Amino acid sequence: MAKRVSLATAVKLQNPGQCLLAQVENWESVGEMQMLPLAMIDPSPYQPREVYSDEALDGLAASIKETGLIQPIIVRPKDNQRYELVAGHRRWLATARTEKTTIAAIVRPLDNREAATISLMENLQREDLDPVDTAKGLQRMLDEFKLTQQDLAALLSRSKADITLTLGLLKLLPEIQAYIKQGKLTAGHGRLLYRLSHEKQRALAEMAMAKAWTVRTLERVIAQQKTASTPKADRDNNVVRLETLLQTHFAVPVRIRANPKGAGFITFRYHSLEECEAILNRFGLPPDQYQ
């Protein structure tokens, strides 16, 4: 069995921006359990979630009234004999909507970096966390704790590419970020749009919503626009035509590059394992042949 390590050990940084990480397995259970007055607990400044559903909080409050709080919250002590919430914001808010005046809490002496990490980790485990809120939480950790994207990826057990793409959402126009928060566009749409100029972001976002484009459709449209904007003098018409045919057939962006001697390569771009499998299927290679 793997040795369990404390968060203080797992998240310790020897130098700013250098992450020495072991797997965090017990951040939800280590600490002293207490019953604390709700009035003595302050919200976390590192909470990435900006909006809570009143309906969901009322439902959780009703559950707490009936069966009690199954999982305690996590807090850390403050200098003024108060406590700061670290994890369990929904449980804390929902309990406040009941007649209860106290709440079960695990008290842990955490520094700012550890508190921010736990708060972000808890929210990343929930599928309903807004992707824009996630990006803001990641950016705050980069700025405040002087981490690199690679440090943050290791800290949260995510790939560096995923961190980079998520942070890219902050480069979107505010109205497009709002569309994602409202569910009118997905994070996948945003990851494609943030690379474009603001003018193209706005135009394509509006078209994607009006025509209910999937992420793959938006990607294909962007690729076609890039191909169309390439000066014909710079590229062979036959190569451009073949790229278009391949993009239509495989439903993903395709790029053909060749040198004057006739050598070159063909690139198929995908953003998920599902898209990769779809490409392989179109090549006649079903999953049972490579899994």
H/E topology pattern: HEEHEEHEHHHHHHHHHEEH
Overall spatial form: elongated
Mean pLDDT: 81
Give the tally of structural domains.
Answer: 2
Share of β-strand residues: 5-15%
Give the biggest sheet.
5 strands, mixed
Q: What is the share of helical residues?
A: 40-55%
Number of strands: 7
The CATH topology of the largest domain comes to Conserved hypothetical protein from pyrococcus furiosus pfu- 392566-001, ParB domain
What does this protein look like?
The chain has 291 residues and is of the alpha/beta class. The protein contains 13 helices and seven strands. The strands form two sheets. Strands 1-5-3-4-2 form a five-stranded mixed β-sheet. A hairpin with a 5-residue loop joins β3 and β4. It starts with 6 loop residues before the first helix and ends in a 9-residue tail after the last helix.
List keywords for this structure.
single chain; 291 residues; alpha/beta; Conserved hypothetical protein from pyrococcus furiosus pfu- 392566-001, ParB domain; 2 domains; 5-stranded mixed β-sheet; two-stranded antiparallel sheet; 13 helices; 47% helix; disordered N terminus
